[in-house]
Design brief:
- The complex is a heterodimer of chains A (about 1150) and B (about 200).
- Chain A has about 1150 residues and is of the alpha/beta class.
- Chain A is built from 49 helices and 19 strands.
- In chain A, the strands form five sheets. Chain A has a five-stranded mixed β-sheet with strand order 9-10-5-11-12. A four-stranded parallel β-sheet of chain A has the order 2-1-3-4. A four-stranded antiparallel β-sheet of chain A has the order 13-16-14-15.
- Chain A is flat and about 110 Å long.
- Chain B is an alpha+beta fold and about 200 residues long.
- In chain B, strand 6 and strand 7 form a beta hairpin.
- In chain B, helix 1 runs antiparallel to helix 2.
- Chain B is globular.
- Classes of the chains: A alpha/beta (about 1150), B alpha+beta (about 200).
- Chains A and B meet through strand 15, helix 35, helix 48, helix 49 and strand 19 of A and helix 4, strand 6 and strand 7 of B.
- Strand 19 of chain A pairs parallel with strand 6 of chain B.
Chain lengths: ~1150, ~200
């Protein structure tokens, strides 16, 4: 048996020892590892060991058989034994090292047991040394029981994914923690040393960017050897295994020892799978290897010591060799891998990636195009500025113009593949990711690819489905820049009037250039092809529009000329979509009018176009459909706004995260502003907020179904300062009141730009201007505030009425919904919409129609239903209340106004609903607001348990105001022993006059004499009854409205409701005209008297409404003109002025 | 603002009222756009967004003027507080008048939340009532004026000395009133209205 094994070790090891020193042999070794892996799987399927390292040691079948004969019955017992031995070694070493006084440090790591995972600086060996010296432990194998900290510098992706199960919640700390702790000579908190990757392991694409920029990022170079890539990671344990194996066989080890080694590597793997890093043994050979990667160096150490201890022979030298060799291997493979790209581990902390914004834009094509113009202007400053004036003068002198439009053919692709002639005829597309399953969008596709139907904007996976052999390249922004510069050099060489449209597209005005424009165009195209290796197309016509359309025909790699006489023919069949300026929306609109081609568009009159699409667009359509374009080449449009928007990869964990992002966005915007040399005053923050029911977007990390929100603000002084921007943005962001987790996109736009130079010069003028603007800004703000205020107002009132009985807003209301539970709800409202049930009907119903419809929209139309329901309810309540057979309490008391309702008219009606009617007697309790309800079931049964439990809750004053029968009823309902209290309490409390002066006055009046002079006395006020029995329709209506408006005792809600009464009802009958005017006049006069001192707002509102009535109705006009002098007199008396009734109302 | 536990209800009411006036006056000044918007900052008061003066002098003027009213309000002497905007000739163009009625006999504990609710509606209404106001001429000036029921006897408080008797130029015709907001709750009634010169007012 022993000979058997040693032979095999020898035979295989001989070759492999060489290989292990020679890292060119990767392919063979990996092949072999795969082979052995396969065979191993077949044989050892029952054991859940993973093949890689195991396979490395079990090349021959004899190995496995010999292994079966090893002294250990199974791996478990073997591992137990091994761990015990390792611990013993460690202990021995620890005691010797501390006794020798080598570095006998304080036992600062007492109780700390680390497990080193992966490559670390300092190495695992050094760390072990530190642990030895300072009383800590180092576990060679991960165990949740023993290990307290996991040390690693870097974790590969898949490990991160599995981290929760892997680490078992143990801290994963960088090795600097140990170094710093040693330096500080005390155990430091590990928290700051936590591995960045773990701090936030929420998936986010910032790491994607980070990796792309790895050449620039600072820690790329030191980390290069750390990079653990799957392919070579797969090999390294094998390597390691073989090398150790080789070394052992060279030395000529005993059977037992090599068995130990092989078992060791097996168990290593076993252990790994225990640590649940491996989910799918067959497919994930990369995964276990990452742990084994960590262990080999470890392994060497252990091996070294075990060899020393057990065999009493020093093999230090070879083992060191092996390990260094391993390192070397690793280095060699690791460093190229980081440059190749792909999923390297070189990632920043995900959520906190400080460069997210920067990287985002570094990788954005749109950004490249967008900012390209700046570069162009800087590069060709003389050209872009100088010729504008000359062009106009020439235009005047030369009657026939010639414009060439030059456009590179599929620029983004052709630039990338210009050095790949073999790909010229293959379908190629450019996209930032070539993951075939990915949802990255194709940004540009060449013509062969377009033949397959591949279009820009497609997801890669769809494109791949259309054309499986589509080659996808990443962007190469440097090349784009280079080619664009060459392109413009050529253009500027041939023509001095160049208008750059984009990096690959330009207009040339060749009116005053000698020679045939067609010839010139072909020269230019030829030169472009020669110098850049990319083709361009050209269109020649007499204006920019036609030149551009001509290019459309010319493409690809051609040129086309539309002579002036050919314009009409060309256009007549041209689909409208081809015209610049016609997008989806406009196209749809036109198609609805049955306009498909420019020829059809020409049939429509200019006026009707302007009517339908607006003056400018209409004119544009009219002109363009006739090939008329008055733009001059060289007219560079002023930049109107500058901004930056990120709508991809935006996922925030918390507010801090978001603020960080915003401040980076501000930095970017500020840089752009500075790049353009402008400053802006209006700042608009746009937010894409995930819709409530939106699912994860199809596009990975895309924004999906979002609501677009935006807020803007204007500052008096234009700025491009980062800090100001950040402050403004923060404020703007605050005004959204959003959950940051819902944000899917953020954009900041700066408009009202001023040139930075102007800003400096015209400070004085500016300040004046800022004056004027500030007013308009405040209006804007006020407007936006208005809505929030309105909303809040509703909320506030809803709550206030139900819970807080607040003073003047709605003084009386019957609350049908028992919102009692809300009474405790604090008034602190956020700007979220309150649930429907919290809304106060009274408030809702008296809202102006516009406001109501808006709110209704917000609630998705539920308000209407609610109102309808509520109406039904209140009617039923009213009718049931009015049945005389039962004692009635309808008291909704607020602010000392008591309402008692006993409705003789409705007394015959049967209760519609047989359910209990809740009435809330809401009383202002002076001691503390408490609402309670008296429940009087329609059947007349009384639920005494809902009565106020103690008299302190009953406002004596309110009780006192109640009519005698009612008072008696309530007293009866109270348990007998409380009765005495009540009466005494009432007596003592009433004189305090805790009720409002006006009500007191009023009520005393009403008690003394009830006459026409006290129309407003009592609850309901006397006029209600009077009006009800009147035979004048409008009076009946008003009385009706009194109840419908919630019986608040205020006139304005009643009038507000009555305003919708049809005109014919207002003046319907002439009978009793005098009587009606008289009583209305009285009503109003008394109302003025009542309110003049304390509530002119109410009077104002009433008279504004009355004025509206007066416009419709003669009766009200009469009343209004009669009462108005009285009103003004009262105002004069009380306020020394006249009420100004605005004409707007 | 610090709160003393054993304060009388009147004191408490007055304190709230003064605090409210400070905010409301700031809001009015902001609303009128006398100063650039940059001179104000958004703040939250009683859970509404309000504008607070940022310029130290402006802030100080409003604060000191109003807080010096506190003793008089406590005594119930103050009838009206007006924010008056003058044109260059010192003729009032627009007056925002707060008419105050504090029930002195109100002996019971004050429900601050009630009061806040009512006062808040002022601030809300105020922020949307720009359309009621008139555009101010350039070079305008403004001041806070208080109308007392009776002239206070020589006061002992140092604060109160900030208030000096004045005779503001008045309009010759009764002004036009536009109510903005009224509240009447116990123990405080406040009404805010605008005063504009009558159209028949002789032009200077």
């Amino acid at each position: 048996m022993s000979s058997d094994l040693s032979r095999s070790a020898n035979s295989s090891g001989g070759q492999r020892s060489k290989r292990s020193f020679n890292n060119n042999n990767n392919s063979t070794s990996s092949n072999r590892s795969n082979n052995s892996n396969d065979s191993n799987k077949k044989k050892k399927i029952s054991q859940k060991t993973l093949g890689v390292a195991w396979g490395a040691n079990s090349l021959s079948s004899s190995r496995s058989s010999s292994f079966r004969k090893s002294p250990f019955s199974d791996f478990g017992s073997y591992m137990v034994e091994k761990n015990r031995k390792l611990q013993n070694q460690f202990d021995v070493e620890a005691s010797t090292s501390s006794h020798c006084g080598l570095g006998s440090g304080k036992p600062i790591f007492h109780g700390v047991s680390i497990f080193v995972d992966g490559f670390t600086v300092p190495s695992n060996q050094e760390l072990r040394g530190y642990m030895l010296k300072h009383g800590g432990r180092l576990e060679n194998y991960f165990s949740r029981r023993r290990v307290t900290h996991i040390i690693c510098s870097n974790l590969p992706d898949c490990k991160i994914k599995n981290l929760r199960s892997f680490s078992g919640g143990l801290p994963v700390v960088k090795p600097t923690w140990i170094l710093d702790s040693v330096a500080a000579n005390k155990l430091l908190s590990w928290v700051p040393y936590q591995l960045d990757q773990l701090a936030n392991n929420q998936p986010k694409l910032s790491d994607f960017f980070a990796l792309k920029s790895s050449p620039q990022s600072q820690d790329a170079s030191p980390c290069a050897p750390v990079c653990q890539r799957n392919p070579e990671a797969e090999e390294s344990p094998f390597k390691c295994g073989t090398s150790i194996d080789a070394y052992l066989s060279d030395v000529g080890e005993s059977v037992e020892h090599s068995g130990l080694i092989s078992g060791e590597s097996d168990n290593l793997i076993n252990k790994n799978s225990n640590a649940s890093l491996v989910e799918e043994p067959a497919s994930s050979c990369g995964k276990p290897s990452e742990v084994t990667m960590a262990t080999p160096s470890n392994f060497d150490v252990e091996d070294e010591s075990s060899v020393r201890n057990e065999l009493q022979s020093s093999h230090y030298q070879p083992s060191a060799l092996v390990s260094s060799n391993f390192m070397y291997n690793h280095n060699m493979k690791g460093s190229p891998s980081s440059t190749v790209g792909g999923p390297s581990n070189q990632r920043h902390s995900t959520l906190e990636d400080p460069n997210f914004v920067e990287n985002y834009f570094k990788n954005s094509r749109l950004h490249f195009i967008g900012t390209w113009r700046n570069r162009y202007r800087k590069r060709f400053p003389s050209f872009s500025n100088g010729f504008k004036c000359t062009s106009s003068s020439i235009k005047a002198s030369a009657p026939k113009t010639a414009v060439i439009h030059v456009d590179m053919d599929c620029f983004f692709v052709s630039v990338v593949i210009r050095n790949h002639p073999e790909l010229q005829d293959k379908p190629v597309a450019v996209c930032h990711s070539d993951n075939p399953k990915g949802t990255a969008e194709i940004s540009s596709a060449n013509y062969p690819a377009r033949d397959y139907g591949v279009r820009a904007g497609m997801f890669v996976r769809d494109a791949k489905a259309l054309c499986s052999h589509l080659v996808i390249f990443p962007y190469n922004f440097e090349a784009y820049e280079e080619v664009a510069d060459q392109f413009y050099n050529i253009l500027h060489k041939h023509c001095n009037k160049v208008q750059a449209v984009s990096c690959d597209e330009a207009f040339l005005d060749v009116t005053d250039t000698e020679g045939d424009p067609q010839l010139l165009a072909s020269t230019i195209r030829k030169e472009i092809l020669e110098s850049t290796g990319c083709t361009a197309s050209a269109g020649i016509a007499e204006n920019m529009l036609m030149a551009r359309l001509a290019t459309r025909t010319a493409k690809p790699d051609g040129q086309f000329c539309i002579p002036p006489e050919g314009v009409d023919d060309y256009l007549s069949q041209l689909p409208i979509k081809a015209l610049p300026g016609i997008g989806h929306v406009l196209e749809e609109k036109l198609k609805k009018q049955n306009v498909w081609t420019c020829g059809q568009l020409r049939m429509i009159y200019k006026d009707s176009l302007q009517k339908d699409f607006g003056t400018k667009t209409g004119e544009m359509l009219w002109n363009y459909s006739r090939g008329v374009d008055s733009r001059l080449v060289g007219m560079i449009q002023e930049t109107k706004s500058i901004g930056a928007e990120v709508n991809w990869g935006v996922r925030f964990k918390d507010v801090k995260d978001c603020q960080n992002f915003l401040s980076n966005l501000c930095k970017e915007v500020s840089l752009r502003l500075q790049g353009c040399g402008v400053k802006g005053r209006t700042f608009t923050l746009k937010i894409k907020k995930r819709r409530k029911d939106a699912v994860e977007p199809v596009k990975y990390m895309g924004f999906g179904d979002c609501e677009n929100l935006s807020h803007s603000t204007t500052v008096p002084v234009a700025t491009d300062d980062v800090e100001v921007l950040q402050r403004i943005t923060k404020q703007l962001f605050g005004s959204f009141h959003l959950d940051v987790k819902e944000i899917r996109g953020v954009g900041l736009q700066v408009s009202r730009l001023e040139s930075a130079d102007n800003c400096k010069q015209g400070l004085e003028r500016n300040s004046l201007k800022s004056w004027l603007i500030s007013a308009s800004a405040s209006t804007e703000e006020a407007c936006s505030k208005y809505w929030t205020a309105k909303e809040r107002f509703n909320i506030g009132q809803g709550d206030g009425v139900s819970g807080q009985l607040c003073a003047n807003s709605v003084s009386l209301s019957i609350e049908m919904d028992n919102n009692m539970s809300d009474s405790e709800a604090c008034v602190n409202q956020v700007s979220e919409l309150p649930p429907l049930c919290h809304l106060d009907m009274g408030v809702l119903e008296s809202l102006p129609p516009e406001l109501f419809s808006e709110l209704n929209e917000i609630y998705g139309g539920k308000l209407v239903d609610l109102i309808a329901k509520n109406k039904g309810k209140s009617e039923s309540v009213r009718s049931s209340l009015s049945t005389h057979s039962h004692p009635q309490v309808e008291g909704a008391m607020n602010e000392g106004q008591a309402v008692f309702q006993s409705d003789p008219v409705l007394h015959n009606e049967i209760p519609v609903q047989n359910k209990h009617i809740y009435e809330e007697v809401q009383a202002v309790c002076v001691s503390g607001e408490e609402s309670y309800s008296v429940v009087i079931p329609a059947s007349g049964l009384v639920k005494t348990d809902l009565m106020p439990s103690s008299l302190s809750q009953v406002d004596g004053a309110v009780l006192q105001q109640l009519p005698e029968e009612l008072k008696a009823d309530i007293l009866e309902l109270l348990p007998a022993h409380r009765r005495q209290d009540v009466s005494s309490n009432v007596l003592s409390e009433v004189p305090l006059e805790s009720l409002g002066i006006k009500t007191t006055e009023n009520h005393s009046g009403s008690k003394d004499s009830i006459s026409d002079n006290d129309l407003w006395a009592g609850t309901p006020p006397q006029w209600v009854d009077k009006f009800k029995v009147s035979n004048f329709l409008i009076l009946n209506i008003l009385a009706e409205m009194y109840y419908e408006s919630g019986s608040t005792g205020n006139l304005s809600p009643i009038l507000q409701r009555a305003i919708s009464v049809p005109k014919h009802q207002l003046d319907a009958s002439r009978e009793g005209w005098d009587e009606a005017t008289h009583i209305l006049r009285e009503l109003l006069k008394q109302y003025i008297k009542l309110k003049i001192e304390f509530d002119i707002e109410e009077i104002y509102v009433c008279f504004c409404l009355l004025k509206r009535f007066a416009m419709k109705s003669e009766l009200f006009l009469h009343v209004y003109t009669d009462v108005f002098p009285y009103l003004q007199a009262s105002f004069g008396e009380n306020y020394g002025g006249n009420l100004h009734i605005s004409l707007k109302d | 603002m610090e709160r003393r536990d054993n304060q009388s209800p009147q004191g408490e009411t007055a304190r709230i009222l003064v605090e409210f006036l400070e905010v409301a006056i700031s809001s009015i000044v902001f609303l009128k756009g006398v100063y650039p918007a940059g001179a104000f900052e958004r703040r939250r008061y009683m859970n509404v967004v309000v504008q607070r003066a940022r310029h130290p002098q402006l802030k100080d003027y409003i604060h000191s003027a109003v807080s010096a009213l506190l003793p008089f309000i406590q005594k119930g002497l103050v009838e009206r507080v007006a924010v008056i905007f003058f044109n260059i000739d010192c003729i009032p163009v627009e007056r925002f008048v707060f008419k105050l009625t504090v029930n002195q006999c109100y002996g019971l504990k004050l429900e601050e939340a009630d009061l806040e609710f009512s006062l808040r509606s002022f601030l809300i209404k105020l922020s949307v009532s720009e359309s009621l106001t008139r555009v101010l001429p350039h070079d305008c000036r403004w001041e806070i004026t208080a109308y007392f029921r009776s002239l206070p006897e020589a006061s002992t408080s140092k604060d109160a000395e900030l208030w000096i008797p004045t005779d503001t130029r008045q309009w010759q015709q009764p002004p036009l009133l536009t109510p903005i907001k009224s509240m009447s709750s116990e123990p405080l009634c406040v009404q805010l209205y605008l005063e504009h010169p009558n159209s028949s007012e002789p032009k200077p």
